[in-house]
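Fill in residues.
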C-alpha cells in the first residue's frame, strides 16, 4: 500500500511572485514506499532518512556545492594540530517537547549514532574524549589524526547523525526510539500514524530556522522562514 504523507503545515515560500496568503496550508504527498521505522539511527532505510530531515536536525549540513555549513551549530573551531574540536550551538534551539537543546543532548546523540554508523564508528575509534563544556558548548578530542570529523557529523546519507534529547539517545542504537522528538521544522503526529496508510507532520511553531537562504540541505528551511517582501 502506498504511503500518504500529510504535511499539515504553513508553507512559507521564498518566491517573490506568489503571495503567501494565496497558498494552501496543507500539502498531501503519495509515495510508493511505506514509512515503517521512525528512527534513522536504527535503520538505513531511505524513506526513514527522508523522514528524519523533516523531524530532526543536524549539527552540520551540506550545501549544493558539497561544502559543510553550520546547521544547529553557531560555529566550530579546530585546533592548529587538528586534534581538538570545539562546537557551539545556536541559541534558542528547542526540542519538540518544549525543552532546550543542550550540548549534553548532542554528545549523547553523537555517541548513539557513532555506535551504529560506519563512518561514525571510525570517528569514535579515533576519539579520545567527547564532552559537554557548558549548556551550549561541547568538545571532541582525538586520540589519533582523523580528518573526517566534520564530514562525519555532516554526512547526508544514512545513518544521518540527527540530534535528539539525551533521554532518547540513551536508547539501544539497534532498537527504535520509543518517542519521536526532534528539533526540526515539523513535529510527528504519532496518534495519527497508520503505517502504510497515513503519516501526519505539523509545523513546529518554535523551530528556529537559519537566516541564510536554503542551499542544498543547508541554510534556512523554506517552510519556516519569514515571508520575503515582494519587490
Amino acid at each position: 500500500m502506498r504511503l500518504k504523507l500529510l504535511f499539515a503545515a504553513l508553507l512559507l515560500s521564498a518566491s517573490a511572485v506568489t503571495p503567501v496568503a494565496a497558498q494552501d496550508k496543507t500539502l498531501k504527498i503519495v509515495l510508493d514506499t511505506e514509512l515503517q521505522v521512525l528512527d534513522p539511527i536504527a535503520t538505513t532505510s531511505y524513506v526513514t532518512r527522508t523522514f528524519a530531515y523533516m523531524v530532526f536536525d543536524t549539527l552540520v549540513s551540506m550545501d549544493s556545492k558539497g561544502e559543510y555549513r553550520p546547521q544547529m551549530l553557531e560555529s566550530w573551531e579546530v585546533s592548529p594540530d587538528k586534534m581538538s574540536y570545539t562546537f557551539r550551538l545556536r541559541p534558542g534551539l528547542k526540542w519538540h517537547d518544549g525543552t532546550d537543546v543542550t550540548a549534553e543532548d548532542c554528545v549523547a546523540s553523537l555517541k548513539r549514532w557513532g555506535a551504529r554508523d560506519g563512518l561514525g564508528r571510525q570517528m569514535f575509534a579515533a576519539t579520545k574524549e567527547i564532552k559537554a563544556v557548558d549548556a551550549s558548548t561541547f568538545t571532541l578530542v582525538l586520540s589519533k589524526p582523523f580528518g573526517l570529523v566534520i564530514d562525519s557529523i555532516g554526512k547526508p546519507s544514512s545513518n544521518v547523525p540527527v540530534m535528539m534529547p539525551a533521554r532518547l539517545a540513551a536508547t539501544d542504537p539497534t532498537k527504535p526510539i520509543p518517542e519521536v522528538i526532534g528539533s526540526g521544522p515539523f513535529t510527528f503526529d504519532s496518534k495519527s500514524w497508520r503505517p502504510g496508510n497515513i503519516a501526519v507532520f505539523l509545523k513546529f511553531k518554535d523551530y528556529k530556522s537559519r537566516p541564510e537562504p536554503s542551499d542544498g540541505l543547508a541554510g534556512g528551511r523554506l517552510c519556516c522562514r519569514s515571508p520575503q517582501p515582494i519587490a
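The beta strands are 3-8, 26-31, 60-62, 68-70, 73-78, 84-89, 127-134, 137-142, 186-188, 198-203.
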